[in-house]
Amino acid sequence: MEIVTRADRPELHEAAAVVFRERWPEFVFHDNVPKRYMGRVEEYFARYDVMVLDGGSVVAGGWGVPMAWDGSADDLPPGYDDALIRAVDGREAGIEPTSLSFMAVAVGSSHDRRGMAGVVLEELARRACSDGLTHVVAPLRPTWKHRYPMVSMAEYAGWSRPDGLSIDPWIRTHQRMGARVLCPAPRSMVIEGTVAEWESWADMVFPVSREYVVPGALNLVLIDRERDRGVYVEENLWVQHR
Asked: What CATH architecture applies to the domain 2-241?
């Protein structure tokens, strides 16, 4: 296996995009904050955008952003969107980063259960350490939370197995690497669209105004037919690695 950055191998960008896209519901790709910031993220932080190749093919990838964080829960961004904003705005303002935030990791479905996610996370953490960053955090999107959309993230994060680890596979992956749960990321992503857009993204019909359980959504989606708007505020979970 080989680890490269997307900057090293730009011709693999589309292959990496396929690996990422198969792991998330369609509505995730309609968050407006990444649309405004990702171009600069790719320019500024290419060192923290890695891919794992096996036989020349992309089997996993992940990326993160360096940002200023004082180490306290109160200073954490509200979630994914604001971590992006803090990293980019901080870079442009000349603010020295202290921490790396893992933002996303994906593994091709044909390479599940081979520890590829851990390989990506460890490589990103190694780069952060070698660059002198003192903290590594992540606003996790727990794998099974969508099964319990009416349960708060704080409650869900406390559910554990007899061995003391989380019931959630993605939280467990981080716990096995030494991470500890910090607190919920209460406003990690905000995705808005028309009712027709949400019906397309969710492959559902929303006949009346109310909150709906939507496949893949960690929280309920609010549909307002009178205003022709659907709004989804996703709650994630901050963890900190050693």
From this structure: 3-Layer(aba) Sandwich (3.40)
